[in-house]
TrEMBL record:
Photolyase/cryptochrome alpha/beta domain location: 5-138
Top EC class, one word: lyase
Entry's family note: Belongs to the DNA photolyase family. Belongs to the DNA photolyase class-1 family.
Alphabetized Gene3D superfamilies for the sequence: 1.25.40.80, DNA Cyclobutane Dipyrimidine Photolyase, subunit A, domain 3, HUPs
Protein name listed in UniProt: Deoxyribodipyrimidine photo-lyase
Amino acid sequence: MNNKGTSLLWFRADLRTVDNTALRHACLSGRPVIALYVATPMQWHQHDVAPIQVDFIQRRLLVLQQQLRELNIPLLIFEVGDYRSIPELITKLVQQYQISHVFCNKQDEWNEQQRDHDVGLALANMQVEFSIVDDSCAIAPGRVKTKQGEPFKVFTPFRREWLNVYHSLLPEAQPAPQAVVVHPVTASLLDQDDRSTPFTYPKKDSVLWPVEEDAIRQRLEAFCSEKVQLYHQHRDFPAIDGTSCLSPYLAIGALSARQCISMLRSSFPLCLEPSDQGAFCWLNELIWREFYRHLTEAYGKLSRNQPFHAWTSKIRWRDADEDLKCWQQGQTGFPIVDAAMRQLLATGWMHNRLRMIVASFLTKDLLIDWRAGEQWFMSHLIDGDFASNNGGWQWAASTGTDAQPYFRVFNPTLQGQRFDPTGDFIRIWIKELKDVPNKYIHTPHLWDGANTLDYPRPIVDHKLARLLAIESFKQAKALA
Ligand code: FAD
């Protein structure tokens, strides 16, 4: 390895110093290290990003800047108008700071890979080394394959093989690296006050989500020691605080999947066995995250707005702007759907069971294209993550691999009755329904006092909508 010059560590969705593979490699190079983060507000990662996530990222970057400073690494933060100008920005930095090697963690999305390809070409022209390493999953995308060497398309066999690979590697989270050598170039950058450009992109306050290292670690520790044992019983009930709420940290890489699993294993050494119900159930969800990342890496079409199953592109989705608006604003007349959508608007967060219910409602009851929902989620969620979001939407819309079969349509009223039986969650978000008796909380239009409520009647008849959706899917399949 060439020991001259400086190493550049390019942060993307991996905003941490602990257990960061590319950072570790950069620090081992023996050269001084400069770190970089580039925000692209026009097309942030070329997918929508929620203003609350922008704020969250910006707050986390300030913590990261401080942590890196302790490692003698200055963090430069830029905002560029268009991601296509990133190669130009990096080549300028290469010249300015005598950079001889650029390191980064791999991103699995197709667009991000194209961007890295362009950066790689520009760096090769300047004889600068470019190392992209795996870090986004506990088991790198592409490592879990069928016996024929193909990507898995079904979750259960994927999980079986993932567990085999995991057992053979037992990847452990790594501590933050040692401080690196200081060079006049990095020393002058470290001496300067904060050089970061404040993002001009719209922001929404994310202060309810702490970004400091200790707070994140405590959240993980508390979940693994206090809640995970009952996770399998509590995880489907939105009125219960039964899940980890760690997805925002995993989405921006303030926390790694390896850190989560290492912590889980230290509390529950048998968590890799299904018999350890709560712990295995939580691990199972982390493996879903890995599954969707493996799929994103293997099938570029997923990042390019296409369904996994080509025949589903023949579905004639309804062009129904008014209905879409009712769904977005929580005005459908289905309380569990509306409460969830209002929570998303107000907080940037939604419980997994509710994501499944509202996604099914949009794509089946309203027969509106899943891409409208996918985009709405990405532009509002604090944990917006392309692979998990696309996977979740394609699952609910029955267009994805190993998705919900199209003829199995969630009944939003029954889902509400089952997972929010006394309407505790609904009453938090729909104040208009606070006095409705429990018996009618999921069907307020049937209550005697319905006329006094400032709340819409159901915008669709679920039974008819279900039949229409099944028919539309059948017709699309027949055309294929
Ligand atoms: P926990 O229940 O504590 O699970 C632990 C971790 O496992 C999560 O933090 C998450 O990283 C992962 N995980 C859990 N469930 C899933 C799942 N079904 N698929 C993939 N990973 C999972 N998750 C996102 O992180 N970002 C998204 O943009 C996103 N969009 C979704 C859209 C739809 C339509 C659906 C159905 C699901 C979506 N999910 C998304 C998955 C899931 O809803 C969230 O990860 C989960 O609600 C986060 O809460 P938690 O951290 O308390 O999860």
